[in-house]
Amino acid sequence: MTTLFISDLHLDPRRPHLTRAFFEFLDTTAQNAEALYILGDFFHLWLYEDPFTLEVADKLKRFSQQGTRIYLMHGNRDFLFGQRYCDKAGATLLKDPTLIDLYGQPTLLMHGDSLCLDDAGYQKYRRIIRSRFIFALQYVVPLRVKQRIAERIQQQSKQAKAGKSLMIMDVTPSEVANQLQSHQVQLMIHGHTHRPATHQLEIDHQAAERIVLGDWGEQGWYLSCDADGSRKLVSFDITPDSKKTDS
Q1: I want to staple 107 with a disulfide (CB 3.0 to 4.6 A). Which of 24, 127, 140, 187 is the partner?
Q2: Which region, left, alpha or beta, applies to residue 94 given φ > 0 means left and ψ of -120 to 50 means alpha?
Q3: Cα angle 225-63-18, degrees, rounded to a multiple of 5
């Protein structure tokens, strides 16, 4: 039995090579997996359902019908999709954070942006943008307004990142320890930082592990966990032929 974890694919109709790479991943690597967890920023930006997101939902639905359970978690870029979209995708919507039993190992799953406490400006933005009021607005705001909002968010995101150090945008170690302690676990899996790695920690005099999933670009990343306790963080090339079609 195998469970797979991915995050930060940033699927976007303007980057079709990533969508093709993801569909190929489902048709090959993910075949016969017991479960697939997608831990946020699955889409580069989500404001509404459209032909592209519905195409992805249809692919996920057909994949889930083969027997693999699919779980979706919100990221900082796609936090507005809801249960309706998950139903179309044949997926279960997860809260952030979520505690699971991974073959007998209690495991904390997160997107990872809530761990970056040193980025005070982003944390303030996160509290506002994820309010119930903002979530409710998506059902009453006209499509043309949503499209303008999407363009503005992407511009502001680029500008904000340009002025910040990489250290500020990484996780705060004390918050990682706090989350592991409060949930009483020794294993955490998250994405968001685009810094794939396995970190060995010591929390309350016990060995712990933090696994960071990678984003998809020139390479794709996934974490494979087997029932025997083995865990492998794997990268693979996204084919040059696919990348040539990127606009």
Answers
A1: 187
A2: beta
A3: 80
Determine contact, residues 238/43, Cβ cutoff 8 Å: no
For residue 247, the model assigns a pLDDT of 29
Percent of the chain with pLDDT over 90: 68
Report how far Cα 42 is from the mean position of its chain's Cα atoms.
Answer: 5
Query: 68 with 35: CB under 8 angstroms?
Result: yes
Q: Which neighbouring-strand residues pair with 106? A: 101
Facing residues of 36 across strands?
Answer: 4, 70
d(CA 60, CA 175): 33
- Encoded tokens for 68: 């693999």
Tell me the pLDDT band of 244, cut-offs 50, 70 and 90: very low
Residue 144 CA to its chain's centroid (Å): 27
Strand-pair category, 219-226 with 2-6 = antiparallel
Query: For the CA atoms of 76, 85, 22, 30, what is the dihedral angle to 10 degrees?
Result: 110
pLDDT in tens, 142-155: 666 666 666 665 56
What domains are defined for the chain?
A: 2-243 (3.60.21.10)
Calculate the average pLDDT of the chain: 87
Q: Average of pLDDT values for 53-63? A: 98
Burial 85-100 (b: 16+ CB within 10 A, else e): bbebbbbbbbebbbeb
CA–CA dist 126, 81 (Å, integer)? 16
